[in-house]
Amino acid sequence: MPSPQSPYGLDESLNGDETVMVRPYLAAHEERERQWERRVALLLALDGVDVKPDVIHGLRIGAGAAW
Fold first, then answer.
1. Cβ neighbours for 41, distance < 8 A, ≥ 6 positions apart
2. What are phi and psi of 59, to 5 degrees?
3. By three-state DSSP, how is residue 8 classified?
4. How many CB atoms are located within 10 Å of the residue 41 CB?
5. What's the CA gap between 46 and 17, in Å, rounded?
6. ω into 2 cis (within 30 of 0)
7. H/E element holding 50?
8. 18/13 Cα distance (integer angstroms)
9. Distance, CA of 20 to chain centre
């Protein structure tokens, strides 16, 4: 008789080398950095300075864009 198993369990065990662990404090720090970059870009845009991104949805934008 097979041993009881959770219906949510995996048939095989996870390989620790293939499984990436993300520390929540590191992910939060990276999100704060991205938020800071967005806020700086917005403040500069209010003064007429165009910064980032050069490509939106695969299309090059800005003064160097050729239509």
1. 51, 52
2. -110, 130
3. coil
4. 15
5. 47
6. no
7. none
8. 11
9. 15
Q: What is the pLDDT of residues 35-62, one digit of tens each?
A: 998 898 888 888 888 776 677 777 777 6
- Structure tokens of 52? 């980032």
| Residue 2: per-residue pLDDT | 67
- pTM for this structure? 0.49
Q: For residue 63, what pLDDT is reported?
A: 58
Place of tokens 């992910």: 27
Strands 55-56 and 59-60: antiparallel
Q: Distance between CA atoms of 51 and 56, rounded to whole angstroms?
A: 12
Express each pLDDT in 19-42 by its tens digit: 677 788 888 999 999 999 889 888
DSSP tag of 48: T
